[in-house]
Design brief:
two-stranded antiparallel ribbon, 120 residues, single chain, 22% helix, alpha+beta
Length: 120
């Protein structure tokens, strides 16, 4: 008998939570990164995985902001240096920095691209 009562109570709580979720306003979630001393916010739903900067292979005859390509979880991703792309000047290359990370974009966006950032 107690199992049935517990199940009814659980179903009641779930129903009330689902109703509350429909009526509440959606909340935006952001990921904060730093590039050349400037803070940048990304919508969290557009961010994918975060990787340490491993080996980024340069590609000749590309724009200065195109850092190269990297193998991330078996997929080839273009790596864009976000600070250079935004026209920001930095003192040293982030590839040598300890806090530098690659922020892969969400696969649902349909682009195999990672952004090189100085810090998260």
């Amino acid at each position: 008998m107690s199992n049935r009562e517990a199940l009814r109570e659980l179903q009641g709580r779930l129903a009330s939570r689902m109703q509350a979720a429909r009526t509440e306003a959606r909340v935006k979630s952001w990921l904060a990164v730093e590039c050349a001393g400037q803070g940048v916010l990304f919508p969290l739903h557009e961010a994918g995985e975060i990787f340490s900067v491993g080996s980024v292979l340069p590609v000749p005859h590309t724009q200065a902001w195109f850092a190269g390509v990297a193998n991330l979880r078996g997929g080839l991703h273009a790596v864009v240096d976000l600070a250079k792309f935004l026209g920001l000047q930095r003192a040293a290359s982030p590839l040598a920095g300890d806090g530098a990370r690659l922020l892969a974009l969400n696969p649902s966006l349909g682009v195999n691209c990672a952004l090189l950032v100085d810090k998260l």
